[in-house]
Amino acid sequence: MRVAVLKGGISSEREVSLVSGAACAKALRASGYDVVEIDVTRDLWNQLVQASPDVIFNALHGDWGEDGRVQGVLDMYGKPYTHSGVMASALAMDKHRAKHVLRAVGITVADGGLFDRVETAKSHPIPVPYVVKPNGQGSSKSVYIIHDEKTNLSSAIAEDKEMGESVIVEAYIPGRELTVAVMDDRALAVTEIIPQTDWYDYEAKYSDGGSVHVVPADIPAEVEALCKKWAVEAHKALGCRGLSRADFRFNEKNTDLTDIANKIVMLEVNTQPGMTPMSLAPEQAAYVGIDFEQLCRWLVEDATWPR
């Protein structure tokens, strides 16, 4: 079976995707697949025609790679592919709309809304502290935390055109960083991410020593159970397929809240989690006895068309 591994691409997360794709290609070759690696360009259709794969393994990250556009090309191409399809990919990447879906199924998400970027830079749109971030990107790029009314990031936000014209502004959620990977309808584990920087930013995610992963997280059993439950519910509600990862904040210090569901906030769902042996989702798979080669093989076996 010939597997085309899509990697690289044209998003701001290109470098991360190149690493994911190379790791997946190596694992699939070790499993006996005929693997062709495609550094994706806007000419993806012709790249696929030239490669002539039986299955397409999507190892792209970021906008264009996981926002439904590439998935649309794959649907048109008509061969089985991994991870989520067009609708789930587009919905999960649109954080504002995804939050409406998550809230509708009973998952706690941060309060906030969609605002014009330039207007947001002029005055505080919601009470401090809050977070300003792109509505359709990942990897914690172009994320600004306004801690108090004296924090002045107005010029940086106004000039950061990569964020897009509309941005998410939502209440800052303090607490511990937790994440749960889901394979189909199975939550694997809960990992606590301990950033070695001020918060879990791009550097903490992708630099050596930028963060420490604790799996399983040292948290109360009821917190673990609810995070797993919500991760699976989010996966299903958004229509995800294959592998996804849900990120949370757990504010255990908030003694004003007695209901555990109000101490846990889902931040977002990632339909194309990082795919190196040391990435969060593969780490959780390894914890439950699924090594990296087995995980990549499962994703190929799970691939279908259409998604």
UniProtKB/TrEMBL annotation:
<dbReference type="InterPro" id="IPR005905">
    <property type="entry name" value="D_ala_D_ala"/>
</dbReference>
<feature type="active site">
    <location>
        <position position="139"/>
    </location>
</feature>
<keyword id="KW-0460">Magnesium</keyword>
<comment type="function">
    <text>Cell wall formation.</text>
</comment>
<keyword id="KW-0436">Ligase</keyword>
<feature type="binding site">
    <location>
        <position position="268"/>
    </location>
    <ligand>
        <name>Mg(2+) 1</name>
    </ligand>
</feature>
<dbReference type="InterPro" id="IPR013815">
    <property type="entry name" value="ATP_grasp_subdomain_1"/>
</dbReference>
<feature type="active site">
    <location>
        <position position="279"/>
    </location>
</feature>
<dbReference type="InterPro" id="IPR011127">
    <property type="entry name" value="Dala_Dala_lig_N"/>
</dbReference>
<dbReference type="InterPro" id="IPR011761">
    <property type="entry name" value="ATP-grasp"/>
</dbReference>
<dbReference type="GO" id="GO:0009252">
    <property type="term" value="P:peptidoglycan biosynthetic process"/>
</dbReference>
<feature type="active site">
    <location>
        <position position="13"/>
    </location>
</feature>
<keyword id="KW-0479">Metal-binding</keyword>
<keyword id="KW-0961">Cell wall biogenesis/degradation</keyword>
<keyword id="KW-0464">Manganese</keyword>
<comment type="similarity">
    <text>Belongs to the D-alanine--D-alanine ligase family.</text>
</comment>
<keyword id="KW-0547">Nucleotide-binding</keyword>
<dbReference type="GO" id="GO:0071555">
    <property type="term" value="P:cell wall organization"/>
</dbReference>
<keyword id="KW-0067">ATP-binding</keyword>
<keyword id="KW-0963">Cytoplasm</keyword>
<dbReference type="GO" id="GO:0046872">
    <property type="term" value="F:metal ion binding"/>
</dbReference>
<comment type="pathway">
    <text>Cell wall biogenesis; peptidoglycan biosynthesis.</text>
</comment>
<dbReference type="GO" id="GO:0008716">
    <property type="term" value="F:D-alanine-D-alanine ligase activity"/>
</dbReference>
<keyword id="KW-0133">Cell shape</keyword>
<feature type="binding site">
    <location>
        <position position="247"/>
    </location>
    <ligand>
        <name>Mg(2+) 1</name>
    </ligand>
</feature>
<dbReference type="Pfam" id="PF07478">
    <property type="entry name" value="Dala_Dala_lig_C"/>
</dbReference>
<dbReference type="InterPro" id="IPR011095">
    <property type="entry name" value="Dala_Dala_lig_C"/>
</dbReference>
<dbReference type="InterPro" id="IPR000291">
    <property type="entry name" value="D-Ala_lig_Van_CS"/>
</dbReference>
<feature type="binding site">
    <location>
        <position position="270"/>
    </location>
    <ligand>
        <name>Mg(2+) 2</name>
    </ligand>
</feature>
<dbReference type="GO" id="GO:0005524">
    <property type="term" value="F:ATP binding"/>
</dbReference>
<feature type="binding site">
    <location>
        <position position="268"/>
    </location>
    <ligand>
        <name>Mg(2+) 2</name>
    </ligand>
</feature>
<dbReference type="GO" id="GO:0008360">
    <property type="term" value="P:regulation of cell shape"/>
</dbReference>
<dbReference type="Pfam" id="PF01820">
    <property type="entry name" value="Dala_Dala_lig_N"/>
</dbReference>
<keyword id="KW-0573">Peptidoglycan synthesis</keyword>
<feature type="domain" description="ATP-grasp">
    <location>
        <begin position="99"/>
        <end position="301"/>
    </location>
</feature>
<protein>
    <recommendedName>
        <fullName>D-alanine--D-alanine ligase</fullName>
        <ecNumber>6.3.2.4</ecNumber>
    </recommendedName>
</protein>
<dbReference type="GO" id="GO:0005737">
    <property type="term" value="C:cytoplasm"/>
</dbReference>
<dbReference type="InterPro" id="IPR016185">
    <property type="entry name" value="PreATP-grasp_dom_sf"/>
</dbReference>
